[in-house]
Specification:
- This protein is of the alpha+beta class.
- Helices cover 23% and strands 34% of the residues.
- Strands 1, 2, 3, 4, 5, 6, 7, 8, 9 and 10 form a ten-stranded antiparallel sheet that branches.
- Helix 3 packs across helix 4 and helix 3 packs across helix 5.
- The model has no long low-confidence stretch (mean pLDDT 92).
C-alpha cells in the first residue's frame, strides 16, 4: 500500500497538471454514475438489503475554476440523464418511472463569487497548503478542526482522497498529498490492473462508507473515484461490487466560461 502511494507521488511530481494562466479557467468535466435502490416499502431510500430493484443512472456537470480565485466560479449542470444498468425484475419499469420523475430538469448554470460554498472550494486553498507531507498532515488536521469523536484518520483520508480525485492540484501538491496519505493507516489495495491500481479507505465506519480511487501509476492521476455504502451486506439484487457513486473527471484549461 505504502509503495503504491509513494510511486504515485513520484509519478505525480513528474507529470505536470493543467494550470490556468491569467484570465483562464480550469475546466473540470465530471461524469457521474449513481446507484438508485428501490423497494415497495422504501421507494425513495431503500438499503441494499431492502432493495428489490436497482439501477445505475449516468449524468454530468462541468466546473470552471478561474485562475483568479476571487472571480466567479461557474458550474453547469447538464439535464441529460440515462439509466445504464438494471438489477432485479422490477428495475426496467421502476427506472422508467424514476426517469419520468426527473424529466423536468433543465440545464442550469450556477455562479459562485470566489467559490464560496462550491463543492470545489478547497482549490482556493492549494497555494497555502504545505508541500512537505508531514507539514501537510498537520495543516490538514488544523484545517479539519474539531471532529466530535469521529475517527481523525478516516477524516484525513477522506480529505486527501477528495482533493486527489479532482486531478486539479498542482503536481508538487498532488505528490505531497500521496506521500501524506501513505502515513494514514487503514487503507487497502482492492485491485491491480496493468498500470491502474485501486485502493480504498473506510472513511466513515458508522455509515459503512468506503471511498476508492483508481490511480494511473504512470501519471499519478486518478482515473476513477467510487463510494460504496454498506459493503458486504449481500443485497438480494445488487452485487456488492457495484458502488453507490462513481465519478470520472477530466481537467483542461480554457479561455472562457459560460
Amino acid at each position: 500500500m505504502k509503495g503504491v502511494l509513494m510511486g504515485a507521488a513520484s509519478a505525480s511530481a513528474a507529470h505536470e497538471s493543467p494550470v490556468a494562466g491569467p484570465g483562464q479557467y480550469l475546466k473540470i468535466e465530471h461524469q457521474t454514475r449513481h446507484l438508485v435502490l428501490w423497494s415497495p416499502d422504501e421507494p425513495v431510500k431503500a438499503t441494499r438489503e431492502q432493495a428489490t430493484a436497482g439501477w445505475v443512472a449516468d449524468s454530468s456537470y462541468t466546473s470552471y475554476i478561474p485562475a483568479s480565485v476571487t472571480d466567479d466560479w461557474v458550474d453547469v449542470f447538464h439535464a441529460q440523464m440515462s439509466v445504464t444498468e438494471l438489477f432485479g425484475a422490477d428495475a426496467a419499469a421502476q427506472s422508467e418511472r424514476w426517469l419520468d420523475g426527473v424529466s423536468w430538469m433543465q440545464e442550469s448554470v450556477q455562479r459562485t463569487p470566489g467559490g464560496s460554498g462550491s463543492s470545489n472550494a478547497n482549490i482556493a486553498a492549494y497555494p497555502m497548503m504545505p508541500r512537505d507531507p508531514v507539514a501537510l498532515l498537520d495543516w490538514t488536521r488544523s484545517w479539519l478542526g474539531p471532529h466530535d469523536g469521529m475517527d481523525e484518520d478516516a477524516l484525513i483520508a477522506n480529505s486527501f482522497i477528495q482533493e486527489l480525485q479532482l486531478n486539479a492540484a498542482p503536481a508538487d501538491l498532488r505528490s505531497a498529498m500521496f506521500r501524506a496519505l501513505s502515513m494514514v493507516p487503514g487503507g487497502r489495495i482492492d485491485s491491480v490492473n496493468d498500470n491502474a491500481v485501486t485502493l480504498s479507505y473506510l472513511t466513515n465506519a458508522e455509515q459503512e462508507r468506503r471511498e476508492a480511487i483508481e490511480i494511473d501509476t504512470r501519471t499519478g492521476l486518478v482515473l476513477r473515484y467510487a463510494v460504496t455504502f454498506g459493503e458486504g451486506t449481500n443485497g438480494a439484487v445488487v452485487p456488492d461490487d457495484v458502488p453507490d457513486y462513481v465519478t470520472v473527471r477530466t481537467v483542461t484549461v480554457v479561455d472562457d466560461a459560460p
